[in-house]
């Protein structure tokens, strides 16, 4: 049986088990979660996170050095940022449209009298941009500061590309390190079905069906928007720009999507999503190694969808109307915030607080959605990593077609 099928079985059994545990008394759920589900899921996550920083650093160094021309790297960087910002804006528009059609905030009775939520402030965007360059690269690697790791790796890769034969020994060392890390990824992935089962069962069992009841329409709105964005926006990008079959793409990338669903972390899924994109979709390693790690940090289409739906939901709950200027402000704020708050812990809720403040809605309303946010985060992560792979794929295919055209002439 293929690994993909095993992961699907693990996910399905995890969902069934989680639903069953949500009905079980706490005397049964707590020991199971504490001594079985929690440890198994956390060990699997730790194994993946153990190799995230090394594989991102090594992959970007090799990818940058493999591109050779720094100007080409800059061009790919501009294309990547443009794709991520445009798709984020589209995700927000679709999310707002779905929320206004379904009106999730009017579908139930919500008690806002005792709702409390303390929001964290995001750093100023200029501080985020300045802090991309690490003062201490070793500290950046040890703390897992992904933007700083990416920046440092790019500098090393550019240096290797320019120095060429002088540093061929170091380049080969990075290639050998990459081979070792890929071996570790393959070994860890054998545990993926068990990790996926434990993580899903624990998440659903912990959330409980009681928390889902009054939030059904909100969840439907978010899930519907996620599906529409993936089926329409990404499919059109794959078909129109990548000149390929969306069905073939999604089928090839499904193992990474399923793992993203279970881990709820773009960074944790990164080693697998890069491996799947390169091996199943034929994305060039030099492009995948640059585009996907950057996307795991700043590409947040799924989070943008949550913000759009949640903003309209909270406005409806508090009986506040949003004007056209408010809608435009939501789209602009959330799109820019996706880059300005990159790498900040709890970035999704921080960005939502920024959006709510911008349109004068009570930040305390965030407390209404926290109960189901963990479940929706699994789907958002699957969409986010898919967007990263779509971007890498269309840039890789475009690059390949240009090379073929140049050879033909």
TrEMBL record:
<keyword id="KW-0812">Transmembrane</keyword>
<dbReference type="InterPro" id="IPR036458">
    <property type="entry name" value="Na:dicarbo_symporter_sf"/>
</dbReference>
<dbReference type="InterPro" id="IPR050746">
    <property type="entry name" value="DAACS"/>
</dbReference>
<feature type="transmembrane region" description="Helical">
    <location>
        <begin position="327"/>
        <end position="353"/>
    </location>
</feature>
<keyword id="KW-0472">Membrane</keyword>
<dbReference type="InterPro" id="IPR001991">
    <property type="entry name" value="Na-dicarboxylate_symporter"/>
</dbReference>
<keyword id="KW-0813">Transport</keyword>
<feature type="transmembrane region" description="Helical">
    <location>
        <begin position="7"/>
        <end position="24"/>
    </location>
</feature>
<feature type="transmembrane region" description="Helical">
    <location>
        <begin position="80"/>
        <end position="102"/>
    </location>
</feature>
<protein>
    <submittedName>
        <fullName>Dicarboxylate/amino acid:cation symporter</fullName>
    </submittedName>
</protein>
<feature type="transmembrane region" description="Helical">
    <location>
        <begin position="216"/>
        <end position="241"/>
    </location>
</feature>
<feature type="transmembrane region" description="Helical">
    <location>
        <begin position="146"/>
        <end position="168"/>
    </location>
</feature>
<feature type="transmembrane region" description="Helical">
    <location>
        <begin position="180"/>
        <end position="204"/>
    </location>
</feature>
<keyword id="KW-1133">Transmembrane helix</keyword>
<dbReference type="Pfam" id="PF00375">
    <property type="entry name" value="SDF"/>
</dbReference>
<feature type="transmembrane region" description="Helical">
    <location>
        <begin position="44"/>
        <end position="68"/>
    </location>
</feature>
């Amino acid at each position: 049986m293929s690994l993909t099928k095993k992961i699907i079985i693990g996910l399905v059994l995890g969902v069934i088990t989680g639903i069953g545990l949500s009905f079980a008394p706490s005397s049964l759920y707590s020991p199971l979660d504490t001594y079985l589900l929690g440890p198994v899921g956390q060990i699997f996550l730790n194994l993946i996170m153990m190799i995230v920083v090394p594989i991102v650093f090594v992959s970007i160094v090799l990818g940058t050095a493999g591109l050779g021309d720094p100007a080409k790297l800059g061009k790919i960087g501009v294309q990547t940022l443009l794709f991520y910002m445009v798709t984020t804006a589209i995700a927000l528009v679709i999310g707002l449209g779905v929320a206004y059609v379904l009106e999730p905030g009017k579908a139930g009775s919500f008690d806002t009298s005792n709702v409390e939520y303390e929001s964290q402030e995001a750093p100023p965007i200029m501080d985020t941009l300045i802090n991309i360059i690490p003062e201490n690269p070793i500290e950046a690697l040890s703390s897992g500061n992904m933007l700083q790791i990416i920046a440092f790796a790019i500098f090393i890769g550019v240096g290797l590309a320019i120095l060429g034969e002088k540093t061929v020994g170091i380049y080969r060392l990075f290639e050998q390190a990459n081979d070792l890390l890929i071996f570790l990824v393959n070994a860890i992935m054998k545990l993926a079905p068990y990790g996926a089962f434990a993580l899903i069962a624990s998440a659903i069992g912990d959330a409980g069906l009681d928390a889902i009841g009054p939030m059904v329409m909100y969840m439907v709105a978010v899930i519907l928007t996620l599906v529409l964005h993936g089926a329409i926006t990404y499919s059109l990008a794959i078909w129109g720009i990548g000149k390929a079959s969306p069905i073939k793409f999604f089928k090839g990338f499904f193992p990474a999507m399923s793992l993203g669903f279970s881990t709820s972390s773009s960074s944790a899924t990164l080693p697998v999503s890069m491996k799947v994109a390169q091996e199943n979709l034929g994305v060039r390693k030099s492009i995948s190694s640059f585009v996907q790690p950057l996307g795991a940090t700043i590409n947040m289409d799924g989070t943008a969808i949550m913000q759009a739906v949640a903003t309209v939901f909270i406005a409806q709950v508090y009986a506040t109307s949003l004007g056209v200027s408010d809608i435009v402000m939501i789209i602009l704020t959330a799109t820019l915030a996706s880059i300005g708050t990159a790498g900040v812990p709890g970035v999704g809720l921080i960005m939502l607080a920024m959006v709510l403040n911008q349109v004068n809605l009570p930040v305390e309303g965030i407390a209404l959605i926290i109960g189901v946010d963990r479940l929706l985060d699994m789907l958002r992560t699957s969409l986010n990593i898919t967007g990263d792979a779509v971007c890498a794929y269309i840039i890789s295919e475009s690059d390949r077609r240009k090379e073929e055209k140049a050879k033909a002439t």
